[in-house]
Amino acid sequence: MAVLDSGASRLRRQLESGGFEARLYVKQLSQQSDGDRDLQEHRQHIQALAEETAQNLKRNVYQNYRQFIETAREISYLESEMYQLSHLLTEQKSSLESIPLTLLPAAAAAGAAAASAGEESGAGSGGRDHFRGPTGFFSSPGAVSRDSSGPAEEGKQRTLTTLLEKVEGCRHLLETPGQYLVYNGDLVEYEADHMAQLQRVHGFLMNDCLLVATWLPQRRGMYRYNALYPLDGLAVVNVKDNPPMKDMFKLLMFPESRIFQAENAKIKREWLEVLEETKRALSEKRRRQQEEEAAPRGPPQVTSKTTNPFEDEEEEEPAAPEVEEEKVDLSMEWIQELPEDLDVCIAQRDFEGAVDLLDKLNHYLDNKPSPPPVKELRAKVDERVRQLTEVLVFELSPDRSLRGGPKATRRAVSQLIRLGQCTKACELFLRNRAAAVHTAIRQLRIEGATLLYIHKLCHVFFTSLLETAREFETDFASTDSGCYSAFVVWARSAMGMFVDAFSKQVFDSKESLSTAAECVKVAKEHCQQLGDIGLDLTFIINALLVKDIQGALHSYKEIIIEATKHRNSEEMWRRMNLMTPEALGKLKEEMKSCGVSDFEQYTGDDCWVNLSYTVVAFTKQTMSFLEEALKLYFPELHMVLLESLVEIILVAVQHVDYSLRCEQDREKKAFIRKNASFLYETVLPVVEKRFEEGVGKPAKQLQDLRNASRLIRVNPESTTSVV
For the region Disordered, what residue ranges are annotated (predicted)? Predict the structure, then answer.
């Protein structure tokens, strides 16, 4: 281990040196390496250094990210205040310069009268008048206006109602008590990515939200409701001018953002100022409400018990003692900053930190009452939980990169489980893995050799299934058992996907029975590996393959029957002459592999065999069919295999019986009897024994066929088979 560490440190120093040249380094490395193994080790070292460097870079980038956000926020506040201060000083300077010192008292009186008159007419004035805001005077050219702070609530509500009557689909806004219009104006929206102009909009800034409405070209002066954003979840960012793109600002509402352009720099500055002022006023208002509600109240007044002697004591019900509601302290700094901290964690993809904050809050509020401040805090936190859940769901969506295997999903799955979304986490995890398995199967190259492709297919699929099962057991070990049933259902669905690809390559391409048997054997061997984790899917793969295997057995059975009938039609009932001892020895080995151990008694002098070519070929083909079929065997195929064997054997038996009845030549008839004896007394017992060994139980149909096929003396003139 020390040698590896020293080698890694030496490699790091070499890569960090100022005169490092990659081409020269690779050349020297190739000359010094003994072989592929050294190059692989160097590659692993370099990859480890690259990953370590990436992690360090990421850690350095995000280390002070939160401080950066807080600093940017404070700078924004300071910039807004400086704007306001500069504006006020400019107005004061211009006012002082325009009024002579000798006329100052009279001008002051006249100015007061004019101000009062302006306030009386300000509520109904149009967008071209000047309105007094909370911090100064604003001139609003065009359609931009700022509501006065002087009118009463009725005037504010009347102004809001008048303006919003021009907006379709926003009547529900008037249901909020205490809501009034602060600022409004025309804007142009641009696309965030390509900075292309999208549409003209009109913004209505209320004291607690921002409404965006689109223009209706066919109805002048009317708008259609587009979006509504609460101010507590809205962030305003000043966009630097980059001609021709200027006078723009960005609104951030997780998980989206929108860019708007004002008519000029002055209106843009007003939008930025009034948005910050309104957000600050709303935050201050809610903070005061929380302090008032959290402040201790005086003890409740207890009325003295009445002394009326005429009251009925039995009917009198004792009043329940008034219990003072327990107060919840929400003034702690971490609680006040919790919504913003959650936004930062979500933006930084620090899912664990966000869930830790939620757990901390839930633990703090556990078994405590829920006064309005707590409910309001809960509402804010619930909105962040919804946003966090959406991000985690997106992390597990199949649209994301499927690289990294099932372990890549562990982070999002574990946080969803901690959020109480166990069912959703299970569903998304399995959906993600299904997409990964499907993609892996589709990316396999179809080789010319079917067996080679099946080996690769089984390796990819069952390895993915095994990894998914282990990761599932790790992630959902602490949950209820309902998720495990969902995994079994998913595994069956995934097995169906595998069988579709398997059958398309093996059975649809009309491969030979021996190739199909080898492929099925490989698939079952891989499937049995899942038993190491307690997952047995053999019965599922059998159930999904049964129709294809039945079709293959039926097809190969028909091929054997057709070949046997063709040979029977050309049968001359002559002995086989193999011509060479090598050919005879090869035939003996083949018959021995078929289970016919006493084949020597059927061989004659030189290279002659005292059997017909038809019977020998039938024996080899039947035993080959039986061996390959037993590789495919499972209980559901018992009757299919048995019936196929009976049909194949009946073709040979009926031909021998028919030839025995029709043949008149004594020598040929004796030869036919010898072939029949070989067929009945040697081949059929071997078939019956091998079937019983492969299946595990005797086949009564084969026994009945052998017993019924004994040579029977019948009328020589008859040409009808009795079998």
Answer: 118-158, 283-328
